[in-house]
Design brief:
- This is OST-HTH/LOTUS domain.
- Residues 53-128 form the HTH OST-type domain.
- The chain is α+β, with helices and mostly antiparallel strands.
- It has helices at 11-16, 23-34, 37-45, 55-67, 78-88, 102-109, 129-144, 153-161, 174-178, and strands spanning 2-5, 19-22, 76-77, 112-116, 122-126, 151-152, 184-187, 190-193.
- The chain folds into two domains: 2-25 and 50-126, LOTUS domain-like (Nucleotidyltransferase, domain 5); 129-193, Nucleotidyltransferase, domain 5 (2-Layer Sandwich).
- It has nine helices and eight strands.
- The strands form three sheets. The chain has a three-stranded antiparallel sheet with strand order 3-5-4. A three-stranded antiparallel sheet has the order 6-8-7. A two-stranded parallel sheet has the order 1-2.
- The longest helix is centred in the last third of the chain and has 16 residues, at 129-144.
Length: 204
């Protein structure tokens, strides 16, 4: 059963539908696709949807990616993620969060890698832990370390926060992640990476 209504539609009704569509989102799409001035004017009177990823949305998307991973390849087909989200939340619509496509929303989530197959289908997966460490060593550290090789932990954490979250890898803090790197030396609020035979060694 398909349902239609405004954003103040009771949740019980929305969840009882196989799919629920917000009229506000449909108005915006119609105005954009048809160029109808009256429809566009109506949509324009509504406040614009701000691009935002709440903690609840972040958890939902991360669970969707995890549950849609193909065990054989380690990648999740974005089309399957979309189906999963609609089955989990009938009123799920990326436009409600300011994004026109699921792929755009997933890219904004951070912490994911993307690829396309020969048929141009998109897949994603959480960035492998080893790649995260390379990102720290080859990208973040050179930007913030001083002449002695020390970088402020908070600066590194802030810089990397838009790309991935240490909590998603089971760490209670960013410092806890750094402590798993054997060649990382931590002093008060700073860290430096000592040169070893392998540029990065972890306790995993």
């Amino acid at each position: 059963m398909y349902g239609f209504g405004r954003r103040n539609t009771p949740e019980a009704f929305r969840q009882s539908c196989d799919r629920f569509f917000y009229l506000e989102n449909l108005q915006e799409t119609t105005a954009a696709e048809e160029g109808d001035k009256s429809t566009a004017a109506t949509a324009a009177t509504a406040p614009p949807v701000r691009k935002t990823i709440t903690e609840a949305l972040r958890q939902l998307l991360n669970k969707a990616v995890k549950d849609c991973i193909d065990d054989a390849t380690g990648w999740a087909f974005v089309g399957h993620i979309g189906t999963y989200l609609r089955q989990t939340q009938p009123d799920f619509d990326t436009r409600s969060f300011g994004y026109d496509k699921l792929s755009s929303l997933l890219k904004a989530l951070g912490g994911l890698q993307f690829r396309h197959d020969d048929a141009s289908r998109m897949y994603c997966r959480r960035i492998p832990y080893s790649d995260l460490l390379k990102l720290l060593s080859n990208d973040a550290m050179p930007k913030f370390r001083n002449k002695d090789g020390w970088a402020k932990i908070h600066a590194l954490e802030t810089y990397l926060a838009s790309r991935w979250s240490y909590q998603e890898y089971g760490f209670a803090s960013f410092t806890a992640l750094l402590e798993t790197i054997h060649n990382a030396e931590i002093r008060n609020d700073s860290v430096r990476l000592m040169q070893t035979a392998n540029s990065l060694e972890t306790g995993e």
